[in-house]
């Protein structure tokens, strides 16, 4: 892959040099936007006088076991793509590995209190339309989940110490990105999200990223705009997902004017005719685009106001986090990324 050509696969990240040349303003405004968010501090603070609930997020393990140990915590989330081939056997193998994480840690009385799993597009067995012929024939065999919660357009309320509870909801659907062996696909552009998630959910688990967050938008991205709209309506404290390995990371979300403007900025900067990329324009074109400048400045002004509100005037911290917990590193098949940890 050349330094200046766009990435060949929608799942590979563009190089920094490519970004600097074809998205100079995006690169610069992203740096400032995330710097201000960092200075603003934590978007969410666990309730006072209560033990925080530690959530460990992972996804996209693709039938491999992470080479390093999983951090300790109260709740473990797997946001899909447990397997590669999605057969009942391979899914059961991954479930059996997850079950080992419920056993007490050495020298401790506890393991994870709860484990919650959502399916990914590779986990074909879960969707009858994509189930393998072999699995369709053998209907007598089923999965043995033990105490693990599997969520598919469903939710569960989990108890934690100090009388705390988390309301968790899981949804596996993704915009089509492969053949009929992939599970839970819908046609891109179709609204598969509006009013599908209860609005009092604390933790939302999907396989697909919402538009503009922890995704690779250069070739259109996998993130879904209807999903983003639904997430804005529900405003979960934690939204955990995966699918786009190169989008791995954790970011604060404030559900305010700054975030709205940042999403508008990206929509403008990546608004190119379908099937084309920024490199089909002249280099540095962004620099002379008044609309991109205007939206970037609008976002930074809103970000600074938000920061002052929290830092000087003691505004409430009512935001949360988005986490892309893909353990598979970029377009390799190695689990080099570490699980992400969030305290709620
Ligand atoms: C599917 O993957 C599992 C786990 O990696 C493997 O054991 C199994 O042989 C694979 N099955 C097929 C049909 O490829």
UniProtKB/TrEMBL annotation:
Alphabetically ordered keywords of this record: Membrane, Transmembrane, Transmembrane helix
Pfam family, one: Metallophos
Organism of this sequence: Capronia coronata CBS 617.96
Keyword Oxidoreductase: no
Domain named Calcineurin-like phosphoesterase: residues: 71-246
Gene3D superfamilies, alphabetized: 3.60.21.10
InterPro entries reported for this sequence: Calcineurin-like_PHP, Metallo-depent_PP-like, UPF0046_metallophosphoest
GO molecular function, one term: hydrolase activity
Protein name: Calcineurin-like phosphoesterase domain-containing protein
Residues passing through the membrane, by range: 20-39
């Amino acid at each position: 892959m050349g330094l200046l050509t766009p990435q060949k696969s929608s799942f590979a990240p563009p190089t920094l040099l490519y970004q600097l040349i074809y998205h100079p303003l995006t690169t610069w405004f992203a740096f400032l936007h995330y710097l201000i968010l960092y200075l603003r501090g934590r978007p969410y603070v666990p309730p006072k006088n209560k033990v925080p609930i530690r959530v460990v997020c992972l996804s996209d393990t693709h039938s491999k076991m992470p080479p390093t140990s999983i951090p300790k915590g109260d709740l473990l989330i797997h946001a899909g793509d447990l397997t590669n081939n999605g057969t009942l056997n391979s899914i059961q193998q991954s479930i059996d590995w997850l079950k080992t994480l419920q056993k007490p840690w050495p020298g401790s009385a506890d393991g994870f209190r709860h484990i919650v799993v959502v399916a990914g597009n590779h986990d074909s067995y879960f969707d009858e339309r994509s189930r393998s012929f072999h699995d369709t024939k053998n209907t007598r065999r089923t999965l043995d989940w033990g105490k693990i919660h599997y969520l598919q357009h469903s939710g569960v309320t989990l108890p934690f110490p100090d009388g705390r509870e988390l309301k968790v909801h899981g949804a596996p659907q993704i915009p089509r990105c492969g053949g009929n062996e992939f599970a839970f696909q819908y046609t891109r552009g179709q609204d598969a999200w509006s009013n599908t998630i209860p609005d009092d959910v604390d933790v939302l688990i999907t396989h697909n990223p919402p538009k503009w967050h922890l995704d690779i938008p250069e070739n259109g991205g996998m993130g879904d705009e209807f999903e983003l709209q639904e997430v804005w309506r529900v405003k979960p404290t934690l939204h955990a997902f995966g699918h786009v390995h190169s989008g791995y990371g954790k970011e604060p979300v404030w559900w305010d004017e700054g975030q709205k403007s940042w999403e508008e900025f990206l929509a403008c900067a990546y608004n190119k005719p379908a099937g084309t990329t920024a490199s089909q324009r002249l280099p540095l074109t962004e620099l002379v685009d008044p609309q991109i400048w205007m939206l970037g400045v609008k976002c930074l002004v809103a970000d600074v106001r938000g920061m002052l509100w929290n830092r000087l005037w003691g505004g409430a911290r009512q935001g949360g986090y988005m986490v892309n917990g893909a353990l598979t590193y970029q377009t390799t098949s190695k689990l080099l990324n570490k699980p992400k940890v969030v305290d709620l």
